[in-house]
Design a protein that fits this description.
Length: 151
């Protein structure tokens, strides 16, 4: 089974959206026995908090099922537990590296690396306030990631 961990700053917008979007793609494609995913934060700021309401609204508008999420922080041991650790922007990548202590196995990537825009980053909608754009980027990244995994 391929285990994927999506990571962003607070685990209330981007990474949890990627988790729920990807979970739905896994179900739609009957891949529940082959792929699983989760999400985490690089910071402690939002630990225990649910999906940020404007991000939740964007997911609901696109019929993405949302579970009872509570933000949590990435821990070092998860590097060994997951096959891929997927960050959203360069700050995430920096802190992922600091938390897990490097990436000797090449498991850490940005979500957009799998798309036709591999250098694109997913800006934090907490700051941009464009939750719909973040949703579209995350969905595009998840679709490309799933395609890559199926190869």
């Amino acid at each position: 089974m391929v285990k994927i961990l999506f990571v962003c700053h607070g685990n209330i917008c981007r990474s949890v959206s990627a988790q729920y979007i990807f979970d739905e793609m896994i179900r739609e494609n009957g891949l529940e026995d082959e792929i699983m995913c989760d999400s985490a934060a690089t910071s402690r700021e939002e630990i225990g908090n649910p999906v940020y309401p404007p991000m939740r609204q964007a997911l609901v508008a696109h019929n993405v099922p949302i579970g009872d999420h509570r933000a949590r922080q990435l821990v070092r041991s998860e590097y060994d537990e997951y096959d891929l650790i997927i960050g959203m922007d360069s700050e995430n990548m920096y802190y992922i590296d600091r938390i897990v202590g490097g990436d000797p196995e090449g498991k850490v990537h940005t979500l957009m690396e799998y798309t036709d825009s591999p250098n694109e980053l997913i800006d934090d909608p907490w700051y941009t306030r464009d939750f719909e754009f973040a949703y579209r980027q995350i969905k595009k990244g998840c679709e490309a990631l799933l395609e890559d995994l199926r190869k």
